[in-house]
Amino acid sequence: MPDRLTRMAETLIQLDGVTKRYGTVTALDNLSMTVPEGSVCGLLGPNGSGKTTAIRILLGLTDTNGGEVDLLGTSPGSQNFATSVKQTGSLIEGPALYGHATARQNMEIQAATLGLSQARTEIEELLALVGLSDRAESKARTFSLGMKQRLGLAISLLNDPRLVILDEPTNGLDPSGIVEIRELIKELPQRGTTVMVSSHLLSEVQLMCDRATIINKGKLVANGTMEEILASTGTAEGYRVYVRISQTEAAVSALSAAGLEVEDRGEGSLLARGEIEDDSEITRILAESGIWLRGLMRERPDLERVFLTLTDVDGSGSGGEANAG
Description:
Number of helices: 11
Number of strands: 13
CATH class of the largest domain: Alpha Beta
Low-confidence stretches: 1-8, 313-325
CATH topology of the largest domain: Rossmann fold
Structural class: alpha/beta
Mean pLDDT: 87
Shape: globular
């Protein structure tokens, strides 16, 4: 296991007050964000929010109009920045593949580009890791979009990077493939690789990431752990309780008397929040009041709902700010 896993966590990505303008258009507006080592961080935002610009700036592909950029402890233009970029794998806007070359040959070409002379074992391991061992000799031009994404992910991991930046890594995958890649990405920190992933599949980001950064119109609206992001709009965990419509009022009274905050959602549906040990407590409270429970389910904060709230609070797309840390 790489020695870096035993070190104290560092900040591998840091933007501090970064601004980027294209003519009269401001792509990034005083953007600050961090990604600590050992995390899987989701970079989220509506189309045109500045995500791709931020990634390009991080990799030194675009300069800034102001602010500070730090990638693996170095800044663009500094003596060691090229080394930091070489320690960063990326899959941005789809993999760049040679269609006439096989999957293995594409890996070998990239290994040669990186100066990795003894990469044969790593290539075989990575092809297996992304589920392409049986297609190693197939030409890339015959691959589906999902298979190209798998190969692109394998290539991004070829140099055993400290950091990997992935743009829509599950694009084109079927449901089982999405689960496989999600689990692979979650395990990357255990291999010594920190991950920043940009995706529009917010349900997947919630399952995949332990941190998130949300930007809107080039501005930061949230940056912190997933728990902090989900709690940033004040939406707490609760239980959805279903009773007979005729018993709604009695159910509200019984649950409220037990110290729960209850919201009547109509048609016999209630949302109960508060200190609840487990499902059976709600069942007991209602049963003791002679109320028949028709259904009960745990309701947790949803990243999609939080995202829409933070990026479009008043319905105009103006968004709000909730910097969680």
